[in-house]
Structure formats: structure tokens, C-alpha cells
Design goal:
By secondary structure, the chain is mostly helical. It has one domain (about 1-245). It has 8 helices and 2 strands. A two-stranded antiparallel ribbon has the order 1-2. Strand 1 and strand 2 form a beta hairpin. It starts with a helix and ends with a helix. The mean pLDDT is about 90.
């Protein structure tokens, strides 16, 4: 799911609106202080945007919805016809957004940049389908959900705060935070007892980070709504586990 989220981020920001390659896309030119010439991208901005799409736009919403509707389990959300309709809407919307962005920004990425992004997307999609389910052989118990929630909150807060530091220092902190976080979580996920409650605990940490950021930006209603949604999801998941036991 995470890998597919990164692929989606590349599709939207690399192929559709092409923000990753357009240094004049944003009004704040100071954001391009970790420029990578041979790729034509800013390192910190790229890591931030892809992480936002993979984690906050993809993984967290899916985890929350699965917790809100536990009976659905891992069953597909859409039928074949529904999937076809959604895909058609996405393609039409993407074409319109790409055209509208080009008219507004008067920018189009190079052939090599578009080709490289397309190849990266294809490889990520292939890679995602090679991450099968695993059976844990660890004898260690998975961490408590509350601990995972705090760990996720701290890591995501560090990531967001580091992003405010433009340049290579912000890039380094963002990359290190992401890599360390996912290595540790991946190893924990292979322990005994790991389940849905642990996944929603991690998602909860990310939601709380977004909530406190929303408070500072004046989005009180959205911050409050996010916390309420998280609480409801956790309660429904716990009730579902009690019924199963």
C-alpha cells in the first residue's frame, strides 16, 4: 500500500501537474534550496510531497476506513464496473488538470523526466505486488498500540518540522526520519500479535500530527473532526475484535 502511494505521488506530481520539475510552480522560490541538477528536482520538496501522498493521502485514509468498516475486511471496495467508472473519472480529471496546469504555469517537463517518472511508477507498481503477506517467525511480542501511536506522532512531527527547514539539512532530516521509521515499523510488524489495532495506532499518530498542525494554521474544525474520526475508528475496531473473540 505504501509503495503504491509513492507511485500515485509520482503520477500526480511528476506526470500530471509536474510540480516536481517546475521550480516556479510554487510562489515561494526559497523551497528549491536542495536542487539536484541531473534530475531537475528539489530533494527536500520531492521527499516531502511523496511522503505526503504515500502516508497522509493514501495509507492513513485506507487504514481508517478499514477500521470504520471492519466487516468489509480486505474485500475490494468497488465492483469491476465501479472500478471502471472511478478509473475513467480519474483519467479524465488528470487530463483536465494537466491541461489546466500547463495553461496556467506554461511549463512542461522534458521527455527524459517524463520517461524516467513513468518507468519509476511501473517499477513501483510491480514491486508492490511482490510484497506478499508474511508469517511471523519472531518470538518477540509486538509493541503496545499506545507506544506505537506515540512513536508515530513523534516521527511524523519531526518530519513535518524538518520540512520547514529548506535546504539540504531539511532534506537529510526528512530522509533519515522516513527511513528509520519504516525500518523499525517493518521489523515490529513481523512480531507476534501484530494486527489491525497496531496499524491504526500508527495511523493515529500521523492524524494527531496533522491535527496539531491544523490548530496552528487555524483549521480548528478539521483538526477536531480528524480526532473524532480516529476515536470512532478505534472504538469500532475494538468492538469488532471483542465480537470475534
Amino acid at each position: 500500500m505504501l509503495v503504491l502511494g509513492i507511485a500515485y505521488g509520482l503520477i500526480e506530481e511528476g506526470l500530471i501537474d509536474q510540480m516536481l520539475f517546475n521550480r516556479f510552480y510554487l510562489s515561494d522560490q526559497d523551497q528549491w534550496k536542495s536542487f539536484i541538477p541531473f534530475l531537475g528536482i528539489d530533494g527536500r520538496l520531492t521527499v516531502y510531497v511523496l511522503a505526503m501522498h504515500a502516508i497522509w493521502s493514501t495509507c492513513i485514509p485506507i487504514i481508517i476506513v478499514e477500521a470504520l468498516f471492519p466487516k468489509q475486511g480486505i474485500k475490494p471496495w468497488l465492483s469491476k464496473s465501479g472500478l471502471g467508472i472511478v478509473t475513467s473519472i480519474f483519467i479524465l480529471g488528470s487530463v483536465y488538470l494537466s491541461y489546466d496546469t500547463y495553461i496556467e504555469k506554461q511549463f512542461f517537463a522534458s521527455t527524459l523526466q517524463l520517461l524516467g517518472t513513468t518507468i519509476a511508477v511501473i517499477l513501483l507498481i510491480i514491486l508492490s505486488f511482490n510484497f506478499g503477506s508474511h508469517t511471523s517467525t519472531s518470538t518477540t511480542t509486538a509493541p503496545k498500540p499506545w507506544f506505537l501511536g506515540i512513536f508515530s506522532l513523534v516521527a511524523s512531527s519531526v518530519f513535518m518540522l524538518a520540512d520547514s527547514s529548506y535546504g539540504w539539512d531539511g532534506f537529510a532530516v526528512c530522509v533519515i526520519t522516513v527511513v528509520v521509521f519504516f525500518i523499525i515499523v517493518f521489523r515490529w510488524s513481523r512480531r507476534i500479535g501484530w494486527g489491525d489495532i497496531h496499524r491504526i495506532a500508527i495511523a493515529g499518530g500521523g492524524i494527531v500530527t496533522y491535527a496539531w498542525l491544523g490548530l496552528f494554521s487555524g483549521s480548528f474544525i478539521f483538526a477536531f473532526g480528524a480526532i473524532i474520526l480516529l476515536v470512532v475508528a478505534v472504538r469500532k475496531l475494538r468492538k469488532s475484535r471483542i465480537r470475534m473473540n
